[in-house]
Amino acid sequence: MKIAIASGKGGTGKTTLATALAQAAAQPVQLLDCDVEEPNAHIFVKPQWTNHKDATIAIPVLDTTRCTNCGKCGELCQFNAIVTIANQTMIFSDLCHSCGGCVLVCPEKALQEQPKTIGYIDTGHSGEITFIKGTLVIGEAMSPPVIRQVKKTAAADQLTIIDCPPGTSCPMMTAVNGSDFVLLVTEPTPFGLHDLKLAVETLRSMDIPFAVVVNRAGCGDDKVDHYCRNEQISLLLQIKDDRRVATAYSRGDGLLSALPELATQLRSLLTEIEKRINQAQGQTQGGGTQ
Amino acid sequence: MKEIVIISGKGGTGKTSITASFAALSKDAVFADCDVDAADLHLLLQPLAIKSMPFISGNVARINEQKCSGCGTCNSLCRFDAVQPGTPYTINPTDCEGCGVCVHFCPEQAIEFPPQRCGEWFQSETRFGPMIHAALDIGAENSGKLVSLVRQEARNLAEANQHELILIDGPPGIGCPVIAATTGAHAVFVITEPTCSGKHDLLRVLELTEHFDIPTYICVNKWDINPDMTQQIKIAGEEKGATFIGTIPYDQQITKAQIEGKTIVEWGDTIAAIAIKEIWNSFCEQLGIAS
Predict the structure, then answer these.
(1) Are A189 and A11 in contact (CB under 8 A)?
(2) Per-residue pLDDT in tens (0 to 9) along chain A, 290 residues
(3) What is the nearest CA distance from B143 to chain A, expressed in angstroms?
(4) Contact between chains at A139 and B40 (C-beta distance less than 8 A)
(5) Closest chain B C-alpha to A178 CA, distance in angstroms
(6) Contacts of B79 in chain A (CB under 8 A)
(7) Mind listing the domains of chain A with CATH numbers?
(8) Residue A267 to residue A246: CA distance in whole angstroms
(9) CATH number of B2-56+128-287: 3.40.50.300, 1.10.10.10, 3.30.360.10, 3.80.30.20?
(10) ipTM entry
(11) What whole-number distance in Å separates Cα of residue B43 and Cα of residue B169?
């Protein structure tokens, strides 16, 4: 069972919820930090690190003794990462999307691929949590390949919780892709609601089931509740606005250290999600028996 | 003309609320919302669009069912798992990177590669001045390119009408959209919060602005949530060569103002509004902008 925690708006409490869910699970669980631009979950999980590896993409290198500057590679490349100008072929590896097209199209076999490190994958443990963190190298633009490699590092058949990056474009979509269920964390403010709507539309376009969690409940207005009711979106949990949580968070202490009584609710939340996933799968496999 | 980008590293530290307040305090600026995949600045500035244009960027592969022979070449070459085998083969547009490899190597020339509409951008008027903003379509890619386009349009507008300043509301993170929003700017203004996560993310942002050699200013929002951490951030930031410009106290009135579609500096002389005005004046003085 793979559950992604996403939001649209940043700073609504994705990491807070993801780490608390993993800590409350009371069973072996994998927690993946896929917010690779700004990974924070390790601050709250405090894992013992056991493994460190590079996240790489394949970039082309040119054998100038073979290259005839025919320009076919540059014609194929959609990202201006390889260009032939004035009888000289140049590679701009920062722009390379690693599609491999230039290597395939080169008639002289003058291009080969070699790995370039664009991030790191760290694995660690804390209690029953297996923690996998991706980190984008600073100055590198493309986070989706690092996110994909974090997800590949995880074992397939285990309860997995994915802490996603904010927003609704490529990084967020790469992180939630392939999940069985998404929890959208929002806050009851105009910004929270606006970005929640975008995230809902994105998940609907990807056909992934989801529900909403409202964090800092009571700090704003009730328009998120109205929206969820009108759109028939389940609001599965509300976490009250509480300065104790904010203070604990500021020190690097999680939600459960401020509000330990939430653990039972989080375990029920996991059970509820499991039930919904099974129902959804039963419907697609059994032709809608409900 | 000076271009100032407001970013945060960590999301939700108050970028948009503070950018909107700066917009309200500025005298002669163009505003640009470069957080294109979760744009919120318009909720406070309430722009009236006077021009809107589609954002076309990149292409997406599409298999022509009639021509597909089912040979599977596309599937074996695609690095992005975007091809789904079947009769005929299909391409999942969400996964398609737009690299064109399948299009080029399909032996039946059965794959089309139309340009993709990825969103829309707008030129608008607000009660504080002109604004350029955009909305990425649901599920669309190329947010970095849309950020560059918004910035370029804001620059064109500022140059044409001789505005002194461009205020840019930036995206969170340190990846593609942030790089597109910050490279070549005159200054970056980082809004962080006094938490372990805020500090961790700030240090990554400072490495990025150092990497691209952009003068950087730091402000801690909600500083009184953890005064010790605020002090640690000040020290760590200054060690990295950034200028610490001030702190803003936690103020529930910011949310109340947001609900009414107002900036906190219009809402009243609240504790946060007073702090933001002081920071703005000091920032303008340091950058030589009329406050």
Answers:
(1) no
(2) 999 999 999 999 999 999 999 999 989 999 999 999 999 999 999 999 999 999 999 999 999 999 999 999 999 999 999 999 988 999 999 889 999 999 999 999 999 999 999 999 999 999 999 999 999 999 999 999 999 999 999 999 899 999 999 999 899 999 999 999 999 999 999 999 999 999 999 999 999 999 999 999 999 999 999 999 999 999 999 999 998 999 999 999 999 999 999 999 999 999 999 999 998 888 776 544 33
(3) 7
(4) no
(5) 11
(6) 98-100
(7) 2-55+120-286 (3.40.50.300), 56-116 (3.30.70.20)
(8) 22
(9) 3.40.50.300
(10) 0.93
(11) 13
